[in-house]
Structure formats: C-alpha cells, structure tokens
Amino acid sequence: MTAPYDPEEREKVVSKLPSALRRELKVRAAQLGIDIKDAVTEGIVAWRSCDPLPPVDTSGGGPFSTYLPAGLYGEFKADCKAKGVSFAQGLAQAVRLWLDSHPTARRTPRPTGARRIIFGNQKGGVGKTSASAGVAEALAEMGNKVCLIDFDPQGHLTKQFGFDMLGIDDPSLAKHMLGEAKGEVRDLLVPIEEKAFAGRLFLLPACKDAFLLDAKLATTRQVRVKETALEKAMEPLEKQFDFIVVDCPPSLGYTMDTALYYARTRDEEEEGTSGIFIPVLAEDSSADAYDMLDEQIQELSNDMDVLIGELGFVVNMYDSRRGWVATSSLDGWKELGDVVAVIPDQSEQRKAVRLKQPLLSYAPDSEQADAMRKIALKVVS
User: What InterPro entries does its record include (predicted)?
Assistant: First the structure.
C-alpha cells in the first residue's frame, strides 16, 4: 500500500515529551541504529491504526522537536482530535508504542573480544577526557559492557568520576604492562554506579607511576614490548567487555605508541572496527598537533606493518560566535577527514566535572550528551 504522504518531504513538529520518555527514545533509537524522526514516524503510523491506548503521564514534559512527513503530520493531528486526546498525549502514546514494540536487542559477547577505541591528540586541552568518558557512557547506556581506561598520568578522568588515583606503590595498569604487578588487572576495575549504565561501565583508574611508563618502556630490552605492552596487559579482560575505551595522554611517546598499536585493526576484524578518534579544537594549533600525531600513526603503521584506523575528528568546545577563525577551522577539519561530531562549548560538561558526575547522568538531554551518543552510534554501526 502506498503511503498517503511523501517520507522525503518533512516539516518540523514541536511538542512536549516527558524527559524520561524522550531520553528512552534517544537511547533506543541509537541502540537500534534508527533515526529518531523515523522511529517517531513508525510509532505514529502504528498508533493511528491501533485501538485506544492507556494514557501516558505527560506531566513535567520538556520541549521535543522532530520532522514528520507533511501529510502524516496533518492526519495525525486530526486523529488526535477525533480520539479526544491532545497532540502531546497522542505523540507520547505513539512514542511509547514504538518503544514497546522495539525492545533492546539482547547483548551477545563478541567472539573476537572487545573493540578497542582510543581518544588521542598530542595537544592537551582539546577534550580527550570528556569525549572518551561521554562516549563510554553512551555505549554503556546503549546496553554494551564498557571498560574505560584512564591512560593519562595526570588522572583527570579518574578524578572527574570522583575516584582517587592509585598510589605509587599500588598495583596499576602501568605495573601490569611492565610485568611488575601482582594479582589480576581486573582487580583494579571500579564500577560507575549510575542508573543509566549500572553494571555495564567500569573504570580502570590512573596511577601516579604512569609518569614513569615512557622511560621504563624506552629502556626495556624485550623485543616489541614498547608496542605490545598495553595489549598484553588487557588481554585477560577483552572477552569480558564489548568495548574498551582509552583516554590517552597528551604525548607522542612510547605510551602513545602502545595505545595506537592496541587500537590497530586485528587480522580477524573488519576495517573501522577499532581505531582512534582525534578530538580537536576549531583553531590552528590543533591542526599543527594533528600533523605530528598523523605522522606518528603512519610511522608506527609502516614499522609494524599494521593498519591503525583513524575513525574521525571530534571538534570539541565549538562556538560559531567566535567568528571566522572557528567556522573556517571547522570547514578545514571537514575537508581533511570525517568530522564525526561537533560538540558545542556549553556549561553542562564543566558542571558535571565539578560535581563529579557522568555527563549523561547529569545532563542527559543536553546537546553535548547527544553529541556523545552520535559518536557512540558511529562506533556501533
């Protein structure tokens, strides 16, 4: 049967939805790889042809906008009037109907182990920590089991979640990489206990001894330890997780080499399955830093005969009000490669860090949170 509307011709629809329902819709659509406007369209089509549904509590609803096919929009409004419900109530029922008929796919462990996603840039202050944390949260929110590694000796990620760095004499990831640790690396993991991803997101905290890692890797006499140290340390955990996300240090040393090698495309993997996202700013110094990182990636790829996938740029703290410098720089990144997301320079992330809360729990409906989900969707697609 031909639809009485053209799905390519859409008009903007503005209404209200309860925040919990709006957030559930965003997460489920991301889990299933469906655009929100298509999910809402499917829900409305199903709602129009079904028996009356129980009311949805729409109290405290917040703004919600999407794009519906023009013909469908008009007919839906008429149906709401005929059924004696408000447009906001009809929309809420349609969204609830879509959610109930599109359950989350059951997670099955990957036979090849976790996918490895690293966030790296030699330049500091570009948002590596916020991007790696936000994307790990979004992946866990989608139902994946995620290990988030604070691989930066400054420990900003660890502190951001409200944890203390491991002591200099404690077991640590660095000691496991160097063969100096007792116990299991899994013993270092701490859970991020938030409702949206409880039981699925774990942090491997930073340790103060990580400042010594580069020097110790440089002096080791074992063949290829510089490149393979992180992989060997993390191998026992890989079957337990869907994704391992690494917040890399702002350096181009041996520590970065071992992270890059860890994110390479393995023999059994498809290209783009694992790799590096590169957070940048819309200004010239980020471009200079990227040139050095790209050179390091190419040299390591050639020396080791491996493929290290550059998964795209994440333009962070973007504000078009800064004028031509910002907008022209953004255009330059788009010309250079795939810009996966543009994260606006807004206060939610800074407030979340100050309060030591995950962004997707503190401000789940913010533009920054949506950008993290967009990157996560790129990862899982």
Answer: AAA_dom, DNA_Partitioning_ATPase, P-loop_NTPase
